[in-house]
Amino acid sequence: MPQSKTLTDISQQLFTIRDYVRWTFSQLNHHNVYFGHGTDNAWDEAVHLVLGSLHLPWDFDPTMLDARITRDEAMVVLSHVEKRCLDRVPLAYLLGESWFAGLPFNVDHRVLVPRSPISELIQNHFEPWLIEEPVRVLDLCTGSGCIGIATAYAFPYARVDLADISEEALCVARSNVERHDLADQVTVYQSDLFDDLPADARYDLIVSNPPYVDEEDLTAMADEYQHEPALGLGSGIDGLDITRRMLRDAPRYLSEQGVLICEVGNSEVALQEAFPEVPFLWLEFEMGGQGVFMLTAEQLIEFADQFALEAC
């Protein structure tokens, strides 16, 4: 933001939606803002910021770009630009909303901003990895609930459980269950991984985007990530503390034909080094993304001794 000008000064020089998108684009570039929480470039971020601040949809009439905005609206947009550029607050937190798998979700500083490539698997109904539609699904380390809720849309007859250790995160997840009117299909549990889930629960699909950032990467992450809950990011020296426990305990909660799909991001190499004999199936994504593996219940049982040893 220009140091010599107040937000009011700037608002007196910009008039239309088009003006604010162009100016926001310039500011994002000038301040070398990091993109990684929904968009990957300054133009898309500028459009999202301005339209979102004005409560306008992406597909609104382009002729409206030349509509003038009110003084109050201008101050909202400019305040968001200031916080985005100077404080490095992720845009989703400024707007209170993020999109995942084509669906809107409430988000704030209590949860990570949804960005997992697992969204592509959900939109493809996890084909061809599921033999048949699941009866019961678990979204482990659910955060905002976006993965589990999107999966509930994909499989409307499945019972879906959301689990997370953070009660703060679960407050957001519950708000999203309510937002999508899925209380009859989706149940929320506060649980340290599997510890507090129903003892008789057996899932055809366990899907998880757990904390997986290693110690080195955690200290080198862009400023935007400092606004996200640390509990949802770091997972020990190699990023695999949570994943090791999940691999050890998952067999007790999977049905015979069940599968575990888990994201470990850049910790993929460390996981393969820790378990060189395990045949992790690393999934590929047309829309980008990596570090997501699949194991069947049978494979998890086969290598149970190794998983138990590593998790100790």
H and E order: HHHHHEEHEHEHEEHHEHEEHH
CATH fold naming of the largest domain:
Rossmann fold
**Number of H/I helices:** 13
* Spatial order of strands in the largest sheet: 5-4-3-6-7-9-8
CATH class of the largest domain: Alpha Beta
Using the 3D structure, state the CATH architecture of the largest domain.
3-Layer(aba) Sandwich
Summarize the structure in words.
The longest helix has 15 residues. The chain starts with 6 loop residues before the first helix and ends with a helix. It contains 13 helices and 9 strands. The strands form 2 sheets. The chain has a 7-stranded mixed sheet with strand order 5-4-3-6-7-9-8. Strands 1-2 form a two-stranded antiparallel sheet. 37% of the residues lie in helices and 15% in strands. A hairpin with a 2-residue loop joins β1 and β2. It has 312 residues and is an alpha/beta fold. It has 2 domains: 89 residues, Orthogonal Bundle (Helicase, Ruva Protein, domain 3), CATH 1.10.8; 210 residues, 3-Layer(aba) Sandwich (Rossmann fold).
How are the elements arranged and paired?
Elements lengths: L6 H5 L5 H14 L11 H12 L17 H15 L5 H5 L1 E4 L2 E4 L11 H6 L12 E5 L5 H9 L4 E6 L2 H13 L6 E5 L12 E6 L6 H6 L20 H9 L4 E10 L4 H7 L6 E2 L9 E5 H6 L1 H8 L1
Parallel strand pairs: 3-4, 3-6, 4-5, 6-7
Antiparallel strand pairs: 1-2, 7-9, 8-9
Helix pairs in contact: 2-3, 2-4, 10-13
